[in-house]
């Protein structure tokens, strides 16, 4: 027999980082659009104001990312466990989860992945977050930092292909993040209720369905630092 159980899934440091990073990324995307298309988009008034806000948000996201990395490497020590797909994830987990998202969900089938504090992300999430957090975000931070100091870094920029190459790369990376935001928000609504996956990012607790008489040691109602 199944019953509902509240699991402390998201510690406060992770929740603070999540919203700080989310607001920073949204600000970067919005200001970046005005900077890229000033003749068509004017959200923040003066062009220079958009640049200043963009640079400020970039610094906030960079510091936030560094804190995230330190937390998962040195405090929680769970970066590999949570964000690196296993062999089983790559062999069948990703395809099973994709089948659920694209078809089974609409027929009321259960999610094949059951979250625990030590395994919060399904195989598709692991693969996506691995690319986003350990590849694309560092590249955005690096390319944005170089663009903030064009004059003193001119020689280095020329070695990297020039300013146009750097600007184009930074813009393409920003397009990836913009697309990810829409997909991320949509997939977050695919819980047993549309807000089920949003609540843990506010209070840390998520409702999970478990089988009676078959307790899962990972599903503890006590706070977890993972």
Structure description:
- By secondary structure, the chain is mainly alpha-helical.
- It has a single domain (2-211), classed as Up-down Bundle (Fumarate Reductase Cytochrome B subunit), CATH 1.20.950.
- Helices cover 61% and strands 6% of the residues.
- The chain contains eight helices and two strands, in the order βααααααααβ.
- It has helices at residues 12-36, 47-75, 79-83, 87-102, 123-148, 154-159, 163-188, 200-203; strands spanning 2-8, 205-211.
- A two-stranded antiparallel sheet has the order 1-2.
- Helix 2 (47-75) packs across helix 5 (123-148).
- The two termini are 29 Å apart.
- Strand order in the sheet with the most strands: 1-2
The helix content is: 55-70%
CATH class reads Mainly Alpha
Distance between the termini: 29 Å
Percent of residues in beta strands?
5-15%
Domains counted in the coordinates: how many?
1
**Which ranges are low-confidence, i.e. pLDDT below 50, for 5 or more consecutive residues?**
214-226
CATH superfamily: Transmembrane di-heme cytochromes, Chain C
What is the strand tally?
2
Shape: elongated
Reported for the largest beta sheet, the result is: 2 strands, antiparallel
Mean pLDDT: 88
Task: Figure out the total of helices.
Answer: 8
What radius of gyration results from the CA coordinates?
20 Å
Helix and strand content put the structural class at mainly alpha
CATH topology: Fumarate Reductase Cytochrome B subunit
Do you know the CATH architecture?
Answer: Up-down Bundle
